Amino acid sequence: MWSRWKLLNLGCRFINYKPWRWRSSTACDKALEYKIGEKIHGFTINQVTPLPELFLTAVKLNHDSTGAQYLHVAREDKNNLFSVQFRTTPMDSTGVPHILEHTVLCGSMKYPCRDPFFKMLNRSLATFMNAFTASDYTLYPFSTQNSKDFQNLLSVYLDAVFFPCLRELDFWQEGWRLEHENPTDPQSPLVFKGVVFNEMKGAFTDNERIFSQYLQNQLLPDHTYSVVSGGDPLSIPDLSWEQLKQFHATHYHPSNARFFTYGNLPLEQHLRQIHEEALSKFQRIESSTTVPAQKLWDIPREYHVTCGPDTFATDSTKQTTISVSFLLPDITDIFEAFTLNLLSSLLIGGPNSPFYKALIESGLGTDFSPEVGYNGYTREAYFSVGLQGIADKHMETVKNIITRTIDEVIEKGFEDNRVEALLHKIEIQMKHQSTSFGLALTSYIASCWNHEGDPTELLNLGKQVTQFRKCLKENPNFLQEKVKQYFKNNQHRLTLSMSPDEKYYEKQAQMETEKLKQKVDSLSMKDRQQIYEKGLELRTLQSKPQDASCLPALKVSDIERTISFTELDIALAADEIPVQYCAQPTNGVVYFRAFSSLNTLPEELRPYVPLFCSVLTKMGCGIYDYREQAQQIELKTGGMSVTPHVIPDDSHLDMYEQGVLFSSLCLDRNLSDMMHLWSEIFNNPHFEDEEHFKVLVKMTAQELSNGIPDSGHLYASIRASRTLTPAGDLQETFNGMDQVRLMKRIAETSDLKPILRKLPRIKKHLLNCDNMRCSVNAAPQQMSQAGKEIENFIKNLGRSKKERKSVRPHVIEKPDSKPVGGDFINCPQIIRKLITDPTFKPCQMKTHFLLPFPVNYVGECVRTVPYTDPDYASLRILARLMTAKFLHTEIREKGGAYGGGAKLSSNGIFTFYSYRDPNSIETLQCFEKAVNWAKSGSFTLEDIDEAKLSVFSVADAPVAPSDKGMDQFLYGLSDEMKQAHREQLFAVSHEQLINVSNKYLGIGQSTRGLAILGPDNVNIDKDPSWVIR
Ligand SMILES: [Zn+2]
To answer: What is the whole-number distance in angstroms between the Cα of residue 542 and the centre of ligand 1?
Structure first.
């Protein structure tokens, strides 16, 4: 994987804090006992810092003989994390760090089997496993809740990064190679192949990514930031195997490594294992990976690039992007970075910010340009602002607006309560807990630590907030002076513009052809012979059954047999609305949700529900206009969002619930303010401001269109399952390509009044308490207060005067099973109103969506059984088994796609999919072969156990206090039902797997649907059974 870390949060968003355990706490207290200078297993303790605000103790160490750096964060959290990070600073665009990241995972000395990460997925209960190549470092993190598993994974990770085999064939497979189009036919033409080669070709179809890449390359042109760390497809074929090995020797060395561990497991054990299995085998080297400071410019620069045309652009004449970016100081200056990060949020965040008002509301473009705001992922940070979706002729206007806005800010400054709202946001981010706090920490500190900044200092957010308040108090012009210094008077400034070229993909293809010709022309007869032989060798190797027995593994017997049940209470508010209460250690935060049904909504309004949801909290309400409303939401809550949902029934494929979920969180002290906001949004939402509506519509449409390169496989799957169940059509309407196209059409319309007039009509059917349920997750002592607030909210809510008739005639009322705990006898129940359609007949449908990208996203869906059916568990294991033992090899390793596999969704749809795939029809054939493979039963008991482990590692992923009880609330899945399903999963046998393969997946057994997103395809064109859109 290749990514530029993008954490939108300022501070740590994720905290997993269990107060009752903390009181008697062990992990943090124990860590406090370490003494500076103390030596443990080859390491020396340098620093011990308690950070009570985040409930952690940070311990810094150094490895004596190699100089490796180490940070341990002790915290009472079971979800322990390890990561190792190397500073990787390439000086060309061959993608060497990225290809290396892939190849070290092709086998190591102790574990000489390919793809240990992927195989460990089936042998471990890891809650996270991955590898990332950023611009200047490569990071390998994993997390798990099981201590035996932690040791296993640590052993695999250490061996992979320090002692990889790096065989030539691994380089061929993962990096690039010349190979015959058909490897068994030496007469077929030679082409470029390789996983990273294809991955990066895919990445460069994403216009936002192209823009971000050039922005960094041009703004920091003197050293490693001027190249593409992931690899430019045209430069990748210049990398040799020797260069790859050399890069490993100089960069993946302990002297260039930073280790990080997090959680409640003892530090000593980690240190011993890391020292014994890896570090003790190395001597210190002088690493020369430091990134020098960027030389500052005397005059601003400009640069222009081209990209592929966007077929979903709302206006084809407005596809230009322009931004102005300013170089900021070194990110290791922690307080300055904190200040500039806050300042950037003030400049661009939300409708009250000066750049939102000046740029977004100018109507010149669709949304901010990519990378807008503060970017702290390079040695020197930068701030960027601009617009996308503008006409070429408006480039100068946008530049002038940016200059003018900066002048205005220097003159006027910011309103006090905007600064307060931002500091409130940091407070809530520090309190809100997620299940992946360790991962959030490692990514939060990675860049700063990479350049020798102090990670402990960076985590001390409380100190930074205090210092910030002090600076503001001492100097009311503090922020304005920063704007003057870093924006107005900064000559190191880049204006970057990007516009589409109709022939972009054609030109890219032509350049690739030329590169290929150049390579092929230089081949001798002997080279050609070797290429043919190596191609066959690789194919043989890939087809050979793989022996993973060298890898450590947990057993099915290591999995907990039973889940722990969550206590829930249900009570009626205002004698009518069921409210689910879930008491949790939420650390001073209340989570409120409501679900409202769409059953009375007229058919023709349904496509507009997603738009209604996305604007509802952004148009103003009651006495607040949209700016004041945004201000209130920021000051009083941690966010209020609205999303449409299609919820499958657990026992009938032809039944579903349709509705809208309202979600929100706030600090305990702000609950009544937040509920007041919900009251106003429900009772007095504003739908009048056409200008502001236009802005929101454009942004939504742009976001959807930009999401296609990343989510193409999801769009393909939603489309493919559209005609298989009655809910499928609604799913496509809400979340599919139909929605993308509808939003594009709306954004193109000049008169939005007819659309705007639909919103109050939707409101009438949705924002009342005729068909609603609520839920609260909060600390036990907050519950009675929460109950009162919800009671008030419900009492104030509108009721329809006459009973509204459901539009669909077939509504079935179904009571939920009663929850565990609480008072069973008088406990009210949630009653769901499910939609059914007795006339529904599933049918086959094949759709090809034409995209201008050179890669495909393939989806094939089969209608199977609902959650409570005994076969559901077998199909779930089967999907995992097929992915691990068949599809991964065929689609990724042999086919060259970035990803592919099978999955079973909660709506009973079995999906085969591929992601950024050079093939399409061939991939569909692979899916068929996978079914035959499953039917033949040529898998072992061990394979089944591995699939079970992998399914359980997902099923048992930690759930944050904010999300406990949500399966019950939203989907009606009780803990008893989950436990029953769990027992079925344990019991799945070889015979059952063959049975379900025959019963559901064979051609003609069940109805299936197919969809491809991708370029024009002659084979599909010739086949009349495909619908081309
Ligand atoms: Zn990758």
So the answer is: 19
By the 8 A CB rule, do 360 and 402 touch?
Answer: no
Cβ(355)–Cβ(349) under 8 Å?
A: no
By annotation, the residues acting in catalysis are 101
Q: Please tell me the distance between residue 842's alpha carbon and the centre of ligand 1 in angstroms.
A: 38
132: three-class secondary structure by DSSP: strand
Nearest Cα to Cα of residue 922 among 872, 965, 970, 860: 860
- 678 CB-side CA count, 13 A: 34
**CA-closest candidate to residue 2, choices 201, 149, 199:** 199
Tell me the residue type at 625.
D
Ligand 1 midpoint to CA 182 (Å): 24
Mean pLDDT of the chain: 91
- For 567-597, the pLDDT digits (tens) are 999 999 888 899 999 998 888 899 999 999 9
> How distant, in Å, are the alpha carbons of 180, 211, 229, 514 from that of 233?
19, 16, 11, 13
What's the rounded Cα separation, in Å, for the pair 876 and 908? Answer: 10
Are 205 and 855 a contacting pair, CB within 8 Å? yes
Distance CA 535, CA 331 (A): 46
Alpha-carbon distance of 798 to 768, in angstroms, equals 5
Please state the pTM of the whole predicted model. 0.86
* Angle at the Cα of 207 from the Cα atoms of 201 and 212, rounded to 5 degrees: 95
Distance CA 847, CA 716 (A): 9
Q: Do residues 386 and 347 make contact, with C-beta atoms less than 8 angstroms apart?
A: no
For the four alpha carbons of 20, 22, 25 and 27, in that order, the dihedral sign comes to positive
3-state secondary structure at position 54:
helix
Count of residues making up the chain: 1029
Distance CA 493, CA 921 (A): 48
Q: What is the pLDDT of residues 129-167, one digit of tens each?
A: 999 999 999 999 999 999 999 999 999 999 999 999 999
DSSP string over 841-857: ----EEEEEE-SSSSEE
Cβ neighbourhood burial of 883 (10 Å; 0-12, 13-18, 19+): buried
Instruction: Read off the DSSP letter of residue 349.
Output: S
Rounding to the nearest 10 degrees, give the CA dihedral for residues 1021, 1024, 1027, 1028: 20
The encoded tokens of residue 628 equal 């004041």
pLDDT of residue 122: 84
Q: What is the chain's percent helix, strand, coil content, to nearest 5?
A: 45, 20, 35
User: Would you place residue 815 in the very low, low, confident or very high pLDDT band (cuts 50, 70, 90)?
Assistant: confident
DSSP annotation string for 468-523: HHHHHHH-TTHHHHHHIIIIIT---EEEEEEEE-TTHHHHHHHHHHHHHHHHHHT-
Where helices occur in 684-782 by DSSP H, the ranges are: 690-706, 708-720, 726-735, 737-748, 753-756, 758-766
Is pLDDT of 706 > 50?
A: yes
The 3-state secondary structure of 194-247 reads CHHHHHHHHHCCCHHHHHHHHHHHHHCCCCHHHCCCCCCCCCHHHCCHHHHHHH
CA of 227 to the centre of ligand 1 (A): 16
| CB 67, CB 46: distance < 8 Å | no
Q: What spacing in Å lies between the alpha carbon of 102 and ligand 1's midpoint?
A: 6
| Cα 582 to Cα 776: distance, rounded to the nearest angstrom | 6
Spatial distance between the Cα atoms of 885 and 842, rounded to a whole number of angstroms: 30
Ligand 1 centroid from CA 234, angstroms: 16
Sequence-ordered list of residues with C-beta below 8 angstroms from that of 466, at least 6 positions apart, any chain: none
* Cα separation, 410 vs 414, whole angstroms: 9
Backbone CA torsion sign across 987, 991, 997, 999: negative
The CA 3 to ligand 1 mean position distance, Å, reads 8
Q: Give the single-character DSSP code of 108.
A: B
